[in-house]
Amino acid sequence: MAVYDLDEQDQLEDLKVWWKRWGNLVTGVALAASIGVVSVQGWRWWQHAQAERASVLYSSVSSAARANDSAKAKDAMAQLADQYARTGYAPRAALLMARMLFDSGDKAGAKAQLAFVLDRTSEDELKQVARFRLAEVQLDEKAYDDALRTLDAKHDDAFAALYADLRGDILVAAGRNAEARTAYQTALAKLDAKSQYRLYVQVKFDALGGVEPSPATPVPAQPAAATVVPTPSSSAAAPPATAPGK
pTM higher than 0.85, yes or no? Predict the structure, then answer.
């Protein structure tokens, strides 16, 4: 049996009193901290597991799209949208699906996939790509006003040339050539002078007449040139005298 001196016994009594008063609180704090650590680790594990499963389905959509296997792509996309919509793979797969559906003539399906991207992703870049492609579908449907409104959304400067070029195409299709020239001119101003894409936009711009000429400034009338009478030099031969009549 342990033997304590008086000081140690006093300390033990103080510790018992302190623990009786604060022990439950200390235990609760320690337990909460432990639960917090376990929860964070569990959340990270769950996210990692979700991402791995989503990446497998994304690969399935990608390979099916390349093979033009619509049934396989739709099945994988349905699982992504249903189970892993919050992952970064779902909106990217939806962009692939939208392109495949549009190319196959399913414009309604393409628009639904693009709407999914706009609704679910928090990445501005993906949203801007989705809006650009949605405007392309609307142009193909001849829904020109809807397409222009889609392009009116705020976008980064990196997308400015693409948006302006597509706006020009929409305006040309709508018969608004003067506005289309302005849109193409905006696109040209945003593109690198050596860009091959810039040459493509330049061709469309030139086809509309290029820069619209400004109103002609009237040219002031020039005063009539004074008639200069040549002065014969001293060395010039004098005209022959007319012979007197006989």
Answer: no
